[in-house]
Amino acid sequence: MKKVIYPLFALVVLLQLVISPLSANAAEQVYFTEPKEGVYNPLHPNTLNWTGNVLVDGGYNLMTNSLYGRGEGGQADIVITSKEIGANAIIDLGANANLSATIERDQYRGWKTYFSLNYSTYLIKTHNNKFAKIKITDIQPNRVYFQYVLETDAPVQGDWRELPAKNLQPADKVWRINFSKEVDATSVHSQNVYVISESGIMVNVSVKVDPSNAKTVLVQPPSSGYEFGKSYTVYVQNIKEKGTSKLIKENVKMKFTIENPVMPVPLKPPSNVKYEIVDKSIKLTWTDSEDANRNDFNGYYIYISTNGVNYTKLTNSNNGSNIFKTNSVFLDGYSGKNVYIYVTAVDLFGNESINSNTVTVTPTPVSNAPIIFDTNAGDGWVTVDWYDIYDPNLLGYYLYISEGTSNEYVRQNQLLTVSNARINGLTNGVKYNFYVTAVYKSGESSKSNIVSETPTAAVTSTWEGQWSTRYGTINMVQSGNKVKGTYQYGTIEGTVEGNNLIGTFYESSVSNGEIKFTISSDGNSFDGKFKYTRDNINDWADWSGTRLK
Known about the structure:
Elements: E1 11-13, E2 29-32, E3 36-40, E4 59-61, E5 66-68, E6 79-80, E7 84-94, E8 103-104, E9 112-116, E10 121-125, E11 131-139, E12 144-152, E13 160-169, E14 175-179, E15 193-197, E16 206-209, E17 216-220, E18 231-236, E19 251-258, E20 271-278, E21 281-287, E22 297-305, E23 312-313, E24 328-331, E25 339-347, E26 359-361, E27 372-378, E28 381-386, E29 394-403, E30 410-411, E31 420-423, E32 432-440, E33 443-444, E34 451-453, E35 465-469, E36 472-479, E37 482-487, E38 490-497, E39 500-508, E40 511-519, E41 525-532, E42 541-542, E43 545-547
Parallel strand pairs: 13-19
Antiparallel strand pairs: 1-14, 2-8, 2-12, 3-12, 4-5, 6-7, 7-9, 7-10, 10-11, 11-12, 14-17, 15-18, 16-17, 18-19, 20-21, 21-24, 22-23, 22-25, 25-26, 27-28, 28-31, 29-30, 29-32, 32-33, 32-34, 35-36, 35-43, 36-37, 37-38, 38-39, 39-40, 40-41, 41-42, 41-43
């Protein structure tokens, strides 16, 4: 048979690529993805099952970043309580374990189903029997923040011709691999074009054919860039020619080194860090760094400690990072604990300023909240009354208001020093909701009971005065659209709605019920009726009256 030699097209590497080679025992190694951020919130409420399936009540899926409940444990990978972390199989690797480093598949023995929760790195087996690593980064009373990596495919091996190394490359370097002919896009993937770090970790780069030139393959850097001063090797293999699927003559690799950055001028720290207690939370504020307008300024780190020695960098729950962009933040979950807090300014490269001043906070909860006992409404106004609080540390009260069904309450700016308030300028026909807090020297109390009132236009009927009825004389007092009255056997109370007075009567715990009175056009009499609430009596009985002159 005649040997057929196919023409191969030459590879011209103008710049270089990104990803990783495997050692001779690649089949025995487990590779991992780049680290991702996760948060377990809320924490699992139950103690873990010591002798059975710790995931029986559900847990967290690392692929979907979702919590599953009872009966869905088959979808969960980990479960975290305030004291424990569990999985189908778990090993504590220690606080200093490398999150992304490869492991041998049969390297570990002595698997358990749970460990005590610590600032450590754990190796687990997921619900689909894959490996994953979890590094605990922040433990808070109601949630736990962590980084994690998942098992991924190993890169394909090959025989490599090594190209001359490239040094002093920028951290955001995009490598362009140029070929003499157009490239088959299906052969351009992370198994054929990849980058390995100097520690043997596959780097999370992206590879694709250049949309504007089918003879060029692009290797995009990881989202956070390459590490300054570190060396990497880019590998290219098994690339095919478009249309013929012919392979390149040889596989190539090239080492490159990332330049060290020019050391930036340190940022000036934030200053005047202070706090106040707001409804059991810590409101932390500070004065911006003088360098907050610098092009390389990124934000702030907040450090917190419960002993003044070991500090933890807080995670911003809004974006999952440690960066806080504003100079004010609310912290919860530290009620009754002494905590120590300082702030630093940080630039785009992670360089921090020196520490700000440290504040010591004891957010002791204030338990004595006001109790609202009466409200009234009129034409565009509402009054709210609450019981006085007698405490030498009391500074006053705050009144909060919302409209309709909204839970967005707005605090009235004035600190009240009396136990009542009249709110004017309200819209008739709109329901308003109110609650009150007490303000002490140590902070603001929890909220009072919530009450509601609806202002109405000036009423058209007047009930003030004495009325002769079959059950004796009723003495009525009217304030706005509210009416209260007394008679021989008890009291009445109601609301004026046009010509009607709708309300209740009370004589005793077994003799009480509802009333509905309708005033005559001349205002001198009313047709009324009542019914008892006892024994499910629903029959209305007559209770009419005539005004006494």
